[in-house]
Design goal:
Length: about 80
């Protein structure tokens, strides 16, 4: 179970597509399944904070990951 970071949700349209796309991108880039799941959960959190179907920009993903690095690092350690 990968917990998400609390966000204001405006529209869940496209969140599933975002999860799948980012998880696959992570896996083919060499991330573990856990790392890919955490990254895709972050991406989905960004997507649902926007109205309608929205893309997640790489810089948004980097910023969100950096902002919550400590928590995310702890999550990755739990699954090792």
């Amino acid at each position: 179970k990968i917990p998400s970071i609390k966000k204001d949700v405006y529209d869940v349209t496209g969140a599933g597509d975002t999860v799948i796309a980012v998880a696959i991108l992570g896996l083919v880039s060499g991330l573990s399944i856990v790392e890919s799941a955490i990254l895709s959960t972050i991406a989905a959190g960004i997507e649902v904070s926007k109205f309608g179907v929205a893309s997640v920009k790489p810089e948004e993903l980097r910023e969100e990951f950096s902002k919550h690095f400590e928590i995310l690092n702890e999550q990755m350690e739990i699954f090792k």
